[in-house]
Protein: Glycerol dehydrogenase
Amino acid sequence: MIPRSVSSPKKFLIGAGLFDQVGEYVAEHGDFAFFVADSFFLSRIHSQTVPSLTAQSIRSHVEKFSGECTTTEIAHLSAAFKASGANVVIGVGGGKALDAAKAVAHNCKAALVLVPTIASTDAPCTALAVVYKDDGTFDHYLFLPHNPDTVLADTAIIAQAPARFFAAGVGDALATYFEARATWRCSGTNLILKKPSRTGLGLGQMCYEILRKNIDATMDAVRNKAVTPALEETIEATIYLSGVGAEAAGVAAAHAVNNGMAVVPALHSAQHGEKVAFGLLTQLVLENAPLAEVQEVIRIIKAAGLPLALRDFGLTEWIEAEWREVAKVACDKNDTMGNMGRPISEQEVYDAMLAANALAERYHD
Ligand SMILES: [Zn+2]
Structure:
């Protein structure tokens, strides 16, 4: 019997200025904090955290993250952690820095606090780390036994990040409900290889409703680096509901197509959530989803400023051999196309991607 599941960080906090109070949250786990931080954020660690750490008598050590979550980097950071004598790992940065911090905490059996500085992926809340090879290509998924202990979503920090990264998080979150629905309908497999739970589907639904209601006001806030209630609600959707929802409910064609799109050289600089949004259009074609639903998804993609058609990714031509390869990778038996509830051939995926791009062109301007 495979059970249904819900898994989540023990604590998720959201608000402006949380990073300045980090000592309070570290104190629940230990008295020596080991920061793994993206280089652009290093200068702010000391000035923003020392008062609250000192107030709790917490010592600290700061280690710069190399920029890639590789086996080499994880081993280096784990050795530095052990040498420091610290007992709490604090990851600060984008998805890769947070994934590295997760792996270090797991290796060293330490408590883990994560502080995302951008809201572009599901990394902060999930029990999964993506490990790359030293040359920057994908190596493997590291499945961890636990989600992070505490996630601090400091809206004052996240609001300062470039709009493109924020939009990528919206793209990833937008697919959550539709992939959850597909997986639920066929009682497929969720991200921790259990059955999807009703809770996961519900979180996906709430995530979608928050995006529908708030996307325009949120992007106004992001583009002006302003913290507003709409922005805060959307960050809860893109960081918590999207991650915990997908973990409990599963992903389907949108993420399988995203994984396939990695083989197109011209898309190498595209963000994960940007490709997931195109994967979602492909999934909606495969499902022949209701017109109103397709139009609503396209409205949100456009409002977020995400790429809609493939030309928005900078692609100038459709190379058939590349997209046949995308379809092949997307249909790999180890990928998540199996959560669509019926066998889907490479030819069907290829045709659906062509049709999704035509659909995007039709609504482009
Ligand atoms: Zn994703």
